[in-house]
Amino acid sequence: HSLLWRFFFFISGCLFSLTRGRFFSPASRTASGSCGGLTGKVDRFGGVTVNLAEVGLPADVSESLFSRLLQESLSQWKAEGKVAVWLRVPISLSRCAAAASTHGFTFHHAAHDQAVLALWLGDGESRLPGFATHQIGVAGAVVDESNGKVLVVQDRNKTKNAWKFPGGLSDPGENIGATAVREVLEETGVRSEFRSLLSIRQQHNHPGAFGMSDMYIICRLRPLTYDINFCTQECLRCEWLGLAELAKTDNTTPITSRVAKLLLHGLEQGFDKIDLTMEELPAVYSGMFYQLYHRQLPPTPKS
Amino acid sequence: HSLLWRFFFFISGCLFSLTRGRFFSPASRTASGSCGGLTGKVDRFGGVTVNLAEVGLPADVSESLFSRLLQESLSQWKAEGKVAVWLRVPISLSRCAAAASTHGFTFHHAAHDQAVLALWLGDGESRLPGFATHQIGVAGAVVDESNGKVLVVQDRNKTKNAWKFPGGLSDPGENIGATAVREVLEETGVRSEFRSLLSIRQQHNHPGAFGMSDMYIICRLRPLTYDINFCTQECLRCEWLGLAELAKTDNTTPITSRVAKLLLHGLEQGFDKIDLTMEELPAVYSGMFYQLYHRQLPPTPKS
Predict the structure, then answer these.
(1) Do B168 and B274 belong together in one domain?
(2) What ipTM describes this predicted complex?
(3) Are residues A176 and A103 in the same domain?
(4) Residues A177, A194: contact at Cβ < 8 Å?
(5) Which residues form the Nudix hydrolase domain (chains A, B) (predicted)?
(6) According to the model, what pLDDT value does residue B28 have?
(7) Which pLDDT tens digit goes with each residue over B230-277?
């Protein structure tokens, strides 16, 4: 339910024309009204979205004036049985966010030059969808199959100099494999290509994620170059280390040690034993593509 | 680098005392100054964090007054070679966010009753870490091994009534397996337990994620009860469907069909062929735990 709501919220925000259908017209009439209330767009779930950049507020509108406008509109929306109100607030009109908070609005999210506030008007607990909860960190285990060595680094900024796989946070919109290849190149100077996804770690209340959740993914990469030219800002050391040694040593993190054992097993029994392979498929609702990871299916699955 | 920065930002925000060490004292002196500038805390990366709830601003501070205060402080911080400024702005003082935007500040993130703004003062492009980029959606494939059937639903709100696995978005701080079990129970009335992780899909610019990225994870669950009592608000139909039939039918989504084939393969060859198993391990920097998913290692790994 909430997913669909997000979809409609996004549509009404980004594809204005799409919302001028049967939902919009009556809503805009009642929402704008004749008494100077705010004009909103109504979604199919009974929520109203008001973009303060579009409703013709004076640039110097005061908190008290906006508070009165909002109060009028809220009374109407409640009378109409609306279940939620979304406010898109340009940063230059931020004082309106303070005014809205006196009516119970809170921040849903904010980025760049816009904040989005929300207020639940329906019965019971809010059923409004939340915002993004996870950051994605990706590490690349670059394995040289010719000698069973893997590329590892020691972080300059960590107190304990434990061997780990090079990696870092995904940029917005960046695919998992692309992050692994980019971070390995930036930290070690080694060029590589994505082979598979090996391991996923989920961690909550993460200090490194502003208290949000962290998803840490380790990929298997194949080296395209072998000469190390590591980033001295980030790394203290960088080496091609034998997998057997990395699997044994105490001078590493638990997850690195675990993945070293996994890679050693793959080296001996075949990486198909440990890999999740990736395939790119078209998304249903758009021309966009998504990447799907799972265990490889046999060429002709028995079915 | 950015990850560490986030760590320090979090620490300085949540564990104030930790920041009163050698970084804080000189910074607070220079940052507060004698001319009524703002008092900030300096992190090890040369960034300053100012919490407007803690610097004793008058509740009715005007945008113009705050703008002057900020201008003075910015001049000092630039002179001191600070590379970034973080502003924590309570929603009631939102007008200060508008004032800050005239000095180049933008929203980094916002939630509940606080917004966090940031400004990069260093050379070149901003190296400030971003905020959470992904929402996590989880579906549960509940497989009855006794008859090779799986629990599927048809969404009431989708136009095309395709069979899919019950699922939904993770709540903040909720583990992947817990989301799958909860959503299956809420949508179908069937109780189940987590067995493994089967598939991961990554999708960007997702309409259902307010334009952010979406990670959709399918888990394999074992049924604990079998009677269906599905949520008529969310679902149009709910059935135990044969995996072979689900793998064949066109009346489903590409990813559901793919996972049906995967499950059929697992049913015939053993689920160990398709599973990523989960283990809970202690985090290094705290008493917290994280969940790690990867292919099962043989009882005694050759190493």
Answers:
(1) yes
(2) 0.86
(3) no
(4) yes
(5) 133-265
(6) 38
(7) 999 889 999 999 999 999 999 999 999 999 999 999 999 999 999 999
- Indicate the number of domains in chain A: 2
Give me the catalytic one of B63, B72, B80, B186.
B186
A125 counts as catalytic: no
Residue A298, burial from CB neighbour count under 10 angstroms (0-12, 13-18, 19+): exposed
Cβ contacts of B244 on chain A, cutoff 8 Å: 303
pLDDT at A45: 85
Query: Considering the entire predicted model, what is its pTM?
Result: 0.86
Task: Give the residue numbers spanning the domain of B239.
Answer: 134-279
B-chain residues near A129 (CB < 8 A): 169
HSE on the CB side for B146, CA within 13 Å?
A: 5
Tokens 């980033």, residue? A231
Instruction: Round to whole Å and give the CA distance between A171 and A180.
Output: 11
Say which CATH number the domain at B207 has.
Answer: 3.90.79.10
Q: What is the per-residue pLDDT across B111-169, written as a single tens digit (0 to 9) for each?
A: 999 999 999 999 999 989 999 999 999 999 999 999 999 999 999 877 577 999 999 99
Task: Give chain A positions within 8 Å (CB) of B293.
Answer: 199-202
Q: Do A215 and B134 touch (CB under 8 A)?
A: yes
